[in-house]
Every structure is written in structure tokens, then in C-alpha cells.
Amino acid sequence: MSNQVASTLGRPRSKALHVSLWIVQIVLALAFGFAGFMKLTQPIASLAHGMPWTQVVPAALVRFIGASELLGAIGLVLPSITRILPRLSALAGLGLTVVMVLAMAFHVSRGEMYGIPPTLVLGLLSAFVAWGRFRKAPIQAK
Description:
- The structure is a single chain.
- The chain is an all-alpha fold.
- The chain has one domain (about 15-135).
- Helix content is about 75%, strand content about 0%.
- It has helices spanning about 5-10, 15-40, 45-50, 60-80, 85-110, 115-135.
- The longest helix has 27 residues, at about 15-40.
């Protein structure tokens, strides 16, 4: 089926979109993987130098957020690479979007406006992956 016919059936296949989604998935996986690993492994006092909020919430919450980010990072790429339940990558993007919305609300409540731009960017990129992998360029399972 040609691209023109596919697009008239409501599902355009765009190689540029597919490649863009892969790039964003990998960048997000690296960012969330690094951040999550640090929140899981570093002492809270060390984390507090770059993330002051880690001192005002329970350590268990910091570790939970770290685990969520690390699992989200894995979920962004592993199901898509293996093509085993690739829809999980879209769900990981959606989950990380929710985490970033909550993070923005937390930063605003503390008056930490410096935390909004990076959180907003990560949230929008995560939403892009969720949208793209759910609607526009889903990866087919094996």
C-alpha cells in the first residue's frame, strides 16, 4: 500500500515522525534513567546540593520517585526495541508526563520557579512520546 493510500485511510506513515520519536525516547530514557539512578543510590544529603526539595520530603518518597523514573526510562525504550508489548512505551511516556505535571505543581507550591522550565520540557517530550506511540506511529508487536 502506498503512503498516499495509507494516509487516506487515516493513518499516515511518517518516517520523520518515527525517527523523531525514537530520538526523543532515547534522550528521555537517558535523562530519566540518570535522574532516577541518582535518586535511588545517592545519599539524601548529596542529592540536596542540586535538589533542595529532597531534604523536605521523606527519603522513601525520593527513592520511590527515583524508582519510578528509572522504570519509566526502561519502559520508554525496552518494549519498543524488543517489540514485546511495545504499547508499554506509550504508557511509560504517559506515566512520566504525569510525574512531570506533579513535579511542576510541587515546584510551584514551593516557589521554586527555576524547576519549572526543565520539568515542563521533560513533560512535553514525554507527552509527545505518549501521543506519537499511541496514535501516529505505534510500533507493531512481534
